[in-house]
Amino acid sequence: MASTSPESPSTPEESRPLTPPLSPNSIEILETAAGIALNSEDPSFLIAVLNELDVAVLTNRSLLILDHLIQHHPNRLCHRLCKIIFFPRDTITEVTSAVALEIFKSLFSDAISGEFIKPFLLCLKSDDRAVENIPAVNKLLSHFSPHYIPENDWPEFTTAVCDNLDSGKEKVLQFVLSVINKLFADGTEYILELRLETLCDKLKKILSSSDVSLKVKEAAVEASFGCILRLKNAVNDEFLQDLLRKVMNTVFFNGEMKFHMSQEGYARFILDHLVALARADAWFLRNQIDKVLKFTFIMMENPQCEERTRFLAIEFVLVLVEDKKGCQILVNTGDLHIKRMLSQLLCMIATVNENTALDNRDQEQCILLDQGMKSMARFSRALGGRFLLEGFPQPFESCFNSEEWQRRRAAVSSLSIISKNCSKTLKSKVDLVADPIMKMVDDMHHHVRWGAMYAVEELSKYLHPELQNHYHQKVLPALTKAMDDFSDSKIQVQAAMATYHFVENCTSNMLEPYLDEIISKLLRCLQKGKQLLKQWALSALAAIARSSQDRFLDYYRTVMPYLNFVMTKARGESNGLLLSETISCMTAIWMVIGKDKLSDDTQQVVQLLASTPISNLDIHDPMRIQGLKAWGRLCKCLGHKFQPYMEVAIPCLLQSARLTLPDVANIEESDERNQMIQIKTAILEEKATACVLLRHCIAELKEGIDLWIDEVAETLVPLLNFYQHAEVRIAAALGN
């Protein structure tokens, strides 16, 4: 019969628990039990404690013993559990080992978990039962903390690691390589320095073997790159160079790729580590560069490879050339690799269709095009645009002469990118980019013509004034012709944008022969164009006025009726953006013309500004800033004639200068917080603009501002520091 007394459980004699009855309050008895569990050669007592965890009436007693062991003897308990988990005797069941493993995982910290690796490694080579436990040990490997391996254990530990790399068992090799890579990941590779040459020899043997799986080779490659990157100062350079050669031999045999493309993941794995090596020490690749580049370009140019593999191959070349020594290594290999890289990037940029070709500023829908353009920028920046265009014209000429419009457009886009990123070296050789681009402005395909207009814009921004000095006779007629193409509004808009940027750095003498034609075309755009074209036509007219100076007087009376018409229409349609651009254009022209030629032209603008209080507009309405700038420009060009308008202008400027910033500290929602930050930025810009304009009014009007001096001082003095930082930035904006 079963007894209900916990002291007399009804169990067979042979399975009755070995632990003696314990009093929970008896520290002495617990310590005695601990001594038996830890000191005895026979693990039976500790095994019995583990087994009792499944016996309900005895669980409390076992937990008391385990708790005492964990608190007072953790390291010794760890070693004892290792023996039970990994080296069970015939009398210990797999269930008992599993229970010990779960206790080990749940009760011990990283510092103690590291203790199990060394004894396990020592027995892996000879104990088949230990090999069977590898899956269980792998679950603990993430807890392995090499930092806690005592220094006096390093020799035995590294010996065990190296010895197990001779194993013919797949599981053993994978596990040991995982331990090695864990050392590199945790920054404890110094432990391996004691047997580094032996370790490298073993890794070379694995890499050369035809009997190991691809998974083992991947782990060996990772360990090899770990040795190269982390331990290169601990061993002879040639020794590690040979290790890299062995790595590359895993993908080549007699100069040919020796693994099937179904193993592309392995190639990508090697590329990933080559990128890391090039980023850390590109010079180390010097002896293997031919083989490495051959492998890289095979992967880059193979259309069957996944995009991520090809991008990784491109990334390796880019990282290599962005390093000064790595760039020299690539150049020393000859022209072939640079030509192949340029050809590959041009092919990527040519991956456009009718829908994406004109959207040069939004690349989200075309990853390949975006990657190609970014890579061309990095490649040209590293090698130098002049070096590329003078030394390697063939890839570009091939595209320019192609019957495919995509390739012609890719060549034009590439020159735009190179001009932007290599402006310093190209300014003395503008013809390298300007001549081929100007040949494309009349291309038969509209996408190529658009690309040429965009290229003119980029060259105007980054190669001025050299481009204007040498090419105004070609560029200005091409721009006026493109603006006359009403069959393609996008080309018109791009031509107007290019006109604005080009004439900004022209002299009046350059512009004079073309003013009739170009102003006529811009006014026609104001008449018939859509909103975006009108905006850029207005910007271009203002830029022409600034650059042509007195010569613009002949066109003033012709231009103003168009501007008044656009302003009136924009106001009637509540088109704030077009209205602000029109006022900006008009006031910029007035600053050039001067107050003596203005007559009553300013009345309409003054009335508009007076009837549209800035405080009534949305903080992001462009008329807020343009309205302030308009008052400032009117003051500057009218001088003392501006005094009648001060009763409206000065309060408006003071109101903007006194704006307060919103408090974003207590806003938790990210979207709302971002919105408030944008508002804060807009307010800061408006305050800075108002401060600068008040200063300009004081300088221009002098004693004429006497009535407002107290209010102006009261506003500006507290903002003095803010004003000083903002003055330079806003003064430049005022001029535009």
Question: Which descriptors would you attach to this protein?
Answer:
mainly alpha; 2 strands; 736 residues; 1% strand
General shape: elongated
Percent helix, as a range, is 55-70%
- Count of helical stretches: 39
- Report the sheet-strand fraction: under 5%
Using DSSP, what is the number of strands?
2
Mean pLDDT: 81
What value does the Rg take, in angstroms? 39 Å
Distance between the termini: 103 Å
Spans where pLDDT lies below 50 across 5 or more residues: 1-20, 360-365, 732-736
- Sheet with the most strands? 2 strands, antiparallel
Question: Class by helix and strand content?
Answer: mainly alpha
**What spatial order of strands do you see in the largest sheet?**
1-2
Helix-strand blueprint:
Elements: H1 27-39, H2 44-51, H3 59-72, H4 74-86, H5 94-107, H6 110-113, H7 117-124, H8 128-132, H9 134-140, H10 154-164, H11 170-185, H12 196-208, H13 214-230, H14 237-249, E1 252-253, E2 256-257, H15 264-281, H16 289-301, H17 307-322, H18 324-332, H19 336-349, H20 367-383, H21 385-391, H22 394-400, H23 405-421, H24 423-426, H25 431-440, H26 446-462, H27 466-483, H28 489-503, H29 508-511, H30 515-528, H31 531-548, H32 553-572, H33 576-593, H34 603-611, H35 622-638, H36 646-657, H37 670-701, H38 709-716, H39 720-735
Antiparallel strand pairs: 1-2
Helix pairs in contact: 1-3, 4-5, 7-10, 11-13, 12-13, 12-14, 13-14, 13-15, 15-17, 16-17, 16-19, 17-18, 17-20, 19-20, 19-22, 19-23, 20-23, 22-23, 23-25, 23-26, 25-26, 26-27, 26-28, 27-28, 27-30, 28-31, 30-31, 30-32, 31-33, 32-33, 33-35, 35-37, 36-37, 37-39
